[in-house]
Amino acid sequence: MLKHIRVPIALLLLGAVPIAAGAFRLTKLTGPATEEGARFAAAPIPIVLHIVGATVFTVVGAFQFAPNLRRFAWHRIAGRLALPCGLIAALSGLYMTITYPHPASDAPLLTVFRLIFGTIMAVALVLGLLAIRRRDIAGHRAWVIRGYAVGIASGTQAVVTLPWFIAFGEPTPLPRALLLGAAWVLNLVVAEAAIRRRARCC
């Protein structure tokens, strides 16, 4: 039984930090005004949609990787919830990147990365949806894995950034952008390796 849930548990652990950070950010929206909260106060709906969508996508999507669950109707039902939530997270993230004021800690390069990887996530999920509609199971799986890899990269970003923080303290804007970008790339590399490994064995 444990071997069937190892991947979902690992994904949930990876997503725990950004989920907690998102919940904390939601509480700050309803609390006293802060400098960070001021960026979202004028238009809070996109950040709320982003946090809720990303949380549902991360949690429900993690269990889509449990092999024993893929044989039941639960996989289809959960997919109909997780995939739209992933699209909401991706599109709201792109909207915020374009319209919200950028904090001083965000280098222009990070904005470019967010636009690139947010677009990759949205496109991958749409292609995954189109693939399953034409009964292309392998194509659906591959595109959804790519979309999920981008969506959960915020957890990888926390892991990648931690050694820098311990060794050098808070990263300045450019190193921070490079660290976050490296996490997105790393997740996509792992996703491609998993897709190719499954294609060879199945």
Commentary on this structure:
The chain is an all-alpha fold and 202 residues long. The chain has eight helices and no strands.
> Which percent range describes the beta-strand content?
under 5%
Q: What is the straight-line distance between the termini?
A: 21 Å
Q: What's the helix count?
A: 8
Share of residues in helices: over 70%
**Sheet with most strands:** none
Helix and strand element order: HHHHHHHH
What is the structural class?
A: mainly alpha
Number of strands: 0
Average pLDDT over all residues: 90
Gyration radius from CA atoms, angstroms: 17 Å
Low-confidence stretches: none
What would the principal axes of the Cα set say about the shape?
globular
TL;DR of this structure?
This protein is an all-alpha fold and 202 residues long.
